[in-house]
Amino acid sequence: MTSNAVVPQAPTSSDPAVYQEYESKWATYPSDGEGWLKRAKEVAEVLAVDAAAREKANKSPRAEVALLKHSGLLKVLGPKKHGGGEQPWSVGYKAIREVAKGDGSVGMLLGYHLLWSRTAHVVGNDEQAERFQELIISNNYYVGGAVNPRDSDLKITYDDDKVTFDGFKNFTTGAAVSDLIVLEGAIHDRPEEHIFAIVPTRQAGITFSHNWDNIGLRLTESGGAKIEKVSAPWADALGWDAAAKKPDPAVLGIPFPSLLLPTIQLVFSNFYLGIAIGALEFAKRYTATSTRAWPFGGDNKEKATDEFYILQTYGNFFAHLRAAEALADRAGDEADRIFGKYQDDRAGLTPRERGDWAEWVASVKVVATDTGLRVTAGVFEVTGARATASKVGLDRFFRDIRTHTLHDPVAYKNRELGRYVLLDEIPEPTWYT
């Protein structure tokens, strides 16, 4: 019998060869945090040249991932002994923000990779953390994920040797262009027990839908994936006792693994801020070169850059973005303190310390969302009607932030912060807190 099933076809991919020159140009990696942020800025400058055109083309971002690989930014958090930059999360967050100024999609791809590449350090045991870090960093692998909590969990069956994942995920950011993919699922007969595992992406059991065609962040390959009988050995079940086939209480029975959630929430806020700052910088150049003064206001100016309302708007946006960045940096510093203190003493982390950091992160999420949406929409008021032309590409900044800020409702972050400040309640760890 002939099947009528439609097999998803991979979209046209961007060509990695267009960035080949940077493999040798960036062959030497930076030695300190300042150098890594300079490298991130260089990547943003390369991407900004044709960001609007690439976004319209909506090709699978293989070239963009290749550029990240050439830059070394995929390794910025990894240990030096495996070829990494050995930088703290605060530098990683700032690098995400910097890249997002030039291209929000690529900033998001970098952010998700940095989170997934460190997953074993948060939810795995020491042996798993070391083994996967060596695998990822020494090979310069890009890591994607299929861990969207709003979907039904992947179902896990198991035998004495392995765990096997089956199911479908609607959102798998970066996974279609990844080397490794993080899977998460629930054991079929014990649905309260979840397992993370990292597996090779290119295998028969993983089929990508290539259906990401949303209004923003169009180059993130965030579409769905079907997972069919994809197995990992018990030794790769992160945080589980492979012999006992049970979660290791010393790894998963403590607050430390729940740090994965505020870690990624702060990733989100940093690429929101990068996109918003990129919008302001783009608009600034446009206003200075193309916006005309309004001739019917009664206080006519020769240049748009002398208009009171334009100066006032830019000044106000700049002040709010500076404040948001300072808040994000404060939360990033707290990430460094938490991970620096407890990575080797995981049992020492208290629910209170975890909760206090989560509320720093929630504060950034609220401010970055409010400010990012306001700035990326508001820049049209100071650039003028002609700035809405498709060829200008100013709209991509708003579309990018609007798309991802719907990931989880910021209203719940406001409520969470309200309970924290009014009732002194720390949030219960969830998939989004």
Characterization of this structure:
- The longest helix is centred in the last third of the chain and has 35 residues, at about 310-340.
- The termini are far apart.
- Helix content is about 50%, strand content about 10%.
- It has about 425 residues and is α+β, with helices and mostly antiparallel strands.
- It has 3 domains: about 15-140, Orthogonal Bundle (Butyryl-Coa Dehydrogenase, subunit A, domain 1), CATH 1.10.540; about 145-245, Butyryl-CoA Dehydrogenase, subunit A, domain 2 (Beta Barrel), CATH 2.40.110; about 255-425, Butyryl-CoA Dehydrogenase, subunit A, domain 3, CATH 1.20.140.10.
- α10 runs antiparallel to α11, α10 runs antiparallel to α13 and α11 (about 310-340) packs antiparallel against α12 (about 350-380).
- The strands form 2 sheets. Strands 1, 2, 3, 4, 5, 6 and 7 form a 7-stranded mixed beta sheet that branches. It has a two-stranded antiparallel sheet with strand order 8-9.
- Keywords: Flavoprotein, Oxidoreductase.
- Pfam families: Acyl-CoA_dh_2 (PF08028), Acyl-CoA_dh_N (PF02771).
- This is Acyl-CoA dehydrogenase/oxidase.
- One of its GO terms (molecular function) is flavin adenine dinucleotide binding.
